From TrEMBL:
<dbReference type="InterPro" id="IPR036569">
    <property type="entry name" value="RpiB_LacA_LacB_sf"/>
</dbReference>
<dbReference type="InterPro" id="IPR025979">
    <property type="entry name" value="ChrR-like_cupin_dom"/>
</dbReference>
<dbReference type="InterPro" id="IPR014710">
    <property type="entry name" value="RmlC-like_jellyroll"/>
</dbReference>
<feature type="domain" description="ChrR-like cupin">
    <location>
        <begin position="224"/>
        <end position="297"/>
    </location>
</feature>
<dbReference type="InterPro" id="IPR012100">
    <property type="entry name" value="DRT102"/>
</dbReference>
<protein>
    <recommendedName>
        <fullName>ChrR-like cupin domain-containing protein</fullName>
    </recommendedName>
</protein>
<dbReference type="InterPro" id="IPR003500">
    <property type="entry name" value="RpiB_LacA_LacB"/>
</dbReference>
<dbReference type="InterPro" id="IPR011051">
    <property type="entry name" value="RmlC_Cupin_sf"/>
</dbReference>
<dbReference type="Pfam" id="PF12973">
    <property type="entry name" value="Cupin_7"/>
</dbReference>
<dbReference type="Pfam" id="PF02502">
    <property type="entry name" value="LacAB_rpiB"/>
</dbReference>
Amino acid sequence: MAEPTVSSTATTTPPPLPLKIIAGADAFGCSLKDTLVSHLRSLNIEVEDLGTSSYYSIAAEVGRLVSAAFSTPSSPAPGIRGLVACGTGVGVSIFANKFPGVFAATCLSTADAANSRSINNSNVLAVSGMATSPDSAIEILDTWLKTPFKSPCPASNSAPWGEETESFLDNSLSEMPVIGTNLSDPKQEEGSINASACALCCLVKNRKLDPIEIIPGGAMKIVRESPTSAIVSFKAGSVEPAHHHTFGHDLVVLKGSKRVWNLSKKAKYDLVVGDYLFTPAGDVHRVKYFEDTEFFIKWEGKWDIFFDEEMEVAKSEISKEADDGFELVK
């Protein structure tokens, strides 16, 4: 049998460390995340610690921010990566991976970490707060940070990859980001990304939304119960007066743009397509829609809404926006 060809370009030179790590965890991964954040800072790596939330919410936020920084898909060593932790490390990787250009890998050993970097060019590390000790997690993180793309790893028996495999890995950098795109338009060029490939956008298709009687311009359709999720739309210029719910809710904008004022926190958020926002239970918030807008929203329990102001008051307050004293959160 012929010996595999070894690439002369293979290298074990450590890659440059990331310029920044965006980190987050749920309650089961919080302690381990804090340990790893401290370790990263001891290496003089900038860390943006998003704190603790539900595994799907925090992982989605990390994924969104890493995706936003993923401007050059062909780069094997992007400057911004992510770190997520939950009980198993699996849930956070699933939700981080829902964003384009994010390659999250659950790593329970240093071998997993080396393989994920060498083969998959992983840019988000997911770890298990229940199965991994702090010392082991630091070893996993160090391996993940220091392993270059295409370098020898346990999967290659610690030998350089052959030319054929190395070529495959090079091609994967441009091919992986377009996996799952929907070429429903026959005129669309193969390999280009179609917005209709979004799984959430597909939920909207062929669904008739029911008018929201208490808020003019709004319509909603429940798509799942317990936990409950829905597709909501509002016409351009619509306003939601200040109100609150007994549940917290996550939302992702699918179309259009809106501004949310959180009166409880004196903060405001400008949201466009792809943006995510979590509003805690009881927080009073007001909304203005700048164009026809659709969004996906999820919450626990039964739907309720309690208004804290009249529509005319809401419109008057929005008209005084320049002097509202709210901090714009970006």
